[in-house]
Amino acid sequence: MERIFVTVRPKPLSSEDAKSSPWRISENSISIANQTSRFDFDRIFKEDCKTIEVYEARTKDIVSAAVRGFNGTVFAYGQTNSGKTYTMRGSDVEPGVIRLAVCDLFDTIIEDVDREFLLRMSYMEIYNEEINDLLAPEHRKLQIHENLERGIFVAGLKEEIVATPEQVIDLMEFGESHRHIGETNMNVYSSRSHTIFRMFLNTEFSKIRFFLIHISFTFCFRVFGKNYKIIESRLRTEDDNIGNSCDAVRVSVLNLVDLAGSERAAKTGAEGMRLKEGSHINKSLMTLGTVIKKLSEGVESNGGHVPYRDSKLTRILQPSLGGNANTAIICNITLAQIHTDETKSNLQFASKALRVTNCTRVNEILTDAALLKRQKKEIEELRARLQVCFFVLLYLILSVRGENMCSIRE
């Protein structure tokens, strides 16, 4: 069991706004001046922090775990114009979390000489509760499906095989050019949709490495001929372990999510299409908040209903919310006095998320050979345990009989 990791990143304030800000930050706690309520998080960054600090706080570990077969999700949450897109996508001067994760992912894979990797990526947006493929713009209004083999997935979503970080970044920029954006009173470049960037990792033990190890085994037999029985037993154990790894394929998914910001029409000045977009954004974020609230209260573990299906966003992210994934939330806020209510609401959401736990595990697909080996090993272990139990029981019976015989003689 591992809970969601939550960090807070305040947006830098102007000198004028800084003077009137009611918020007070002390290490990893934040509160409003002259109020008793306080919010504690895993990490609260300084306003002038670099995105690399945000990335290394938790996302770096999630990327590393994804290479080992664990699912991972990181998403930026906050009101409009609080710095979410800057955190996730970055700028020409400072790379964002997505770019840092992609580069780190490939660096980690290159260092792992024992395994072979196949990487695919997808990029989608949820706009007005419709799923659009940003890598294939003609694929619109896609549907969510679920089955035993793939779990929850978006049917028809393009998955591009990628081999370099440059290829991934180019595809992401192509997708970004088709994302819905618009101007409001609060933000010239306002995201009008949620985006989900995904990396799919398939990995198995390197067949070349497997072959070389067997050559090494043969060499050892010839060199240590007199002690071959000792070496043979050790090599058989090693061979079984390698064989299991070789026959098992690990699969994992890494989600990097840039959520559209919550909006108040009175502040954004939204009308017409912008108002409709804002309404859909707020509705999906409200559902996300409800899901987090229910999970934090333990409703699902007690057999209660969690409304994942009330929104496309929560349905797609369902495995990351109380499911099988390492999940982190970057809560972007502004400390300006004019946005106090929105900031407090965002911090309340983030505080609830701290109480949500996930059940993470390595995702393995076993071949028939690996499954048979594993089952044989389990049977042998069970037999060994039964033998131990038998001898313990026999010892206890004999001990009791011995005591009874002594009492009779007395």
Automatic annotation (TrEMBL):
InterPro entries: Kinesin-like_fam, Kinesin_motor_CS, Kinesin_motor_dom, Kinesin_motor_dom_sf, P-loop_NTPase. It holds the Pfam family Kinesin. Keywords: ATP-binding, Coiled coil, Microtubule, Motor protein, Nucleotide-binding. SUPFAM superfamilies: P-loop containing nucleoside triphosphate hydrolases. GO terms for molecular function: ATP binding; microtubule binding; microtubule motor activity. Gene3D superfamilies: Kinesin motor domain. ATP binds at G78, Q79, T80, N81, S82, G83, K84, T85. This is Kinesin-like protein. PROSITE patterns: KINESIN_MOTOR_1, KINESIN_MOTOR_2. Belongs to the TRAFAC class myosin-kinesin ATPase superfamily. Kinesin family. The keyword Magnesium does not apply. GO terms for cellular component: microtubule. GO terms for biological process: microtubule-based movement. Residues 3-356 form the Kinesin motor domain.
